[in-house]
């Protein structure tokens, strides 16, 4: 089974008549790749299937896939336009991968999906694990859609602490999913899929709104930190969504801290910089998460409008490593972050010994199990002495300066 790379793009930019002409030309080329006894079909859209009887299926199918790939990667002359496409191919072999047409088509489709996700212009054979993996993914995706509607998500909050005063300076919202069958599912498990499927956009909006509303109940000097995914920047809705969450909760923009990772901002840096710049102008604080694990260049750190650096847990871990080299690297990373003169938070602090070194290095904040694990909102409310707060303040009651910033940042 095969489909064309970027067919939708070609259709959208050059028009449907060109798209149709391309499909005909592709069919003609496919005919030159196969034996007379083979069968070619168009399954719909830009999807084609080839059925051929082979005595040595694996070797022969791979050779056929190569031929097709080569044939379709040559430019197509379609009257007014020269079009370049390419193809991804999934291969299933009967009777090993299925004994009826449904099973074979499904197996080939899964192999095609795999070929596409490992980079376009390749072919892939069906493997039984693909079926299980796809199944698990589909289930998780379906459950995640459901989770948002039926209120299975919850935020826990983990304090970060000022190292000089020992006071809590704010709390980071961390997403938790109570799955009705599987119990508590960790964010490491579902956030990558939520990013891939785009579900992180509505989930992220829910997180922002919930975290800001929760912060409205805390003493006003406490910040609330929210993690952002790259997909949220790509959605273009980020700035209005943040405005909305701030306005609905009534908290001052200076209390909201957005955590972004280096790797998130390396891609699409234009769009990300624009959005972060707007938010920063509004007074929202920006934190660089997992510092040290990405590839920030010095010039990048200068350009990027952030207020805080969060030193990744792995470095905090290595501060007391038995290996001298690891220990030196960890110290150098901490020292470098501190030397940039921003707030520096060490993540994942678990012991007094780690804490002592971080103090010595003049780190400004720490976060980790040594002080507190993430806790549910009721426990946090007790910890910070929250009061039940009346209805959130409307934007018109904000300080005039904040209102002006919102208006100018909203463009
Ligand atoms: P992160 O932003 O680096 O969050 C810190 C993670 O370290 C949290 O894991 C936290 O529970 C854990 N942690 C905190 N202190 C310690 C410690 O002392 N020792 C150890 N071993 N671990 C500690 P969690 O809650 O499982 O979250 C994992 C990741 O999932 C987060 O890493 C973040 O990248 C992502 N995530 C969580 N909530 C959200 C969210 O609302 N939106 C997005 N986009 N990502 C989220
Ligand atoms: Ca974080
Ligand atoms: Ca982190």
From TrEMBL:
It comes from the Bacteria. Residues 1-128 form the GGDEF domain. This is Diguanylate cyclase (GGDEF)-like protein. NCBIfam families: GGDEF (TIGR00254). PANTHER family: BIOFILM ARCHITECTURE MAINTENANCE PROTEIN MBAA (PTHR44757:SF2), DIGUANYLATE CYCLASE DGCP (PTHR44757). Pfam families: EAL (PF00563), GGDEF (PF00990). Residues 137-388 form the EAL domain. InterPro entries: Biofilm_reg_signaling (IPR052155), EAL_dom (IPR001633), EAL_sf (IPR035919), GGDEF_dom (IPR000160), Nucleotide_cyclase (IPR029787), Rev_trsase/Diguanyl_cyclase (IPR043128).
């Amino acid at each position: 089974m095969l489909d064309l790379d970027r067919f939708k793009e070609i259709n959208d930019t050059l028009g449907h008549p060109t798209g149709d002409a391309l499909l005909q030309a592709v069919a003609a080329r496919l005919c030159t790749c196969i034996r007379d006894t083979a069968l070619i079909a168009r399954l719909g859209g830009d999807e084609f299937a080839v059925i051929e009887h082979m005595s040595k299926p694996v070797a022969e199918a791979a050779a056929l896939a190569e031929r097709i790939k080569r044939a379709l990667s040559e430019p197509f002359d379609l009257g007014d336009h020269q079009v370049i496409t390419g193809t991804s191919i999934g291969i299933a072999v009967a009777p090993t991968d299925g004994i009826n047409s449904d099973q074979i088509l499904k197996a080939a489709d899964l192999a095609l999906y795999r070929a596409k996700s490992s980079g376009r212009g390749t072919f892939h054979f069906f493997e039984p694990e693909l079926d299980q993996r796809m199944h698990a993914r589909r289930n998780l995706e379906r459950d995640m859609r459901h989770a948002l509607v039926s209120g299975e998500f919850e935020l826990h909050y983990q304090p970060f602490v000022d190292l000089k005063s020992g006071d809590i300076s704010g709390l980071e919202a961390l997403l938790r999913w109570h799955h009705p069958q599987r119990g508590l599912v960790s964010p490491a498990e579902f956030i990558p899929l939520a990013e891939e499927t785009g579900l992180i956009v509505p989930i992220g909006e829910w997180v922002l709104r919930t975290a800001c509303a929760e912060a409205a109940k805390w003493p006003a000097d406490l910040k609330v930190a929210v993690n952002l995914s790259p997909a949220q920047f790509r959605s273009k809705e980020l700035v209005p969504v943040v405005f909305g969450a701030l306005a609905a909760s009534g908290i001052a923009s200076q209390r909201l801290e957005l955590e972004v990772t280096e790797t998130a901002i390396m891609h699409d840096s234009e769009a990300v910089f624009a959005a972060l710049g707007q938010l920063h102008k509004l007074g929202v604080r920006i934190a660089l998460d997992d510092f040290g694990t990405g590839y920030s260049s010095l010039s990048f750190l200068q350009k990027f409008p952030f207020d805080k650096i969060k030193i990744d847990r792995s470095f905090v871990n290595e501060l007391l490593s038995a290996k001298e080299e690891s220990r030196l690297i960890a110290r150098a990373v901490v020292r470098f972050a501190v030397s940039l003169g921003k707030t520096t938070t060490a993540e994942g602090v678990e012991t007094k010994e780690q804490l002592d070194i971080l103090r010595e290095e003049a780190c400004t904040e720490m976060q980790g199990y040594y002080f507190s694990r993430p806790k549910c909102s009721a426990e946090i409310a007790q910890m910070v002495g929250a009061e039940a707060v009346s209805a959130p303040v409307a934007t018109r009651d904000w300080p005039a300066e904040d209102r002006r910033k919102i208006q100018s940042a909203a463009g």
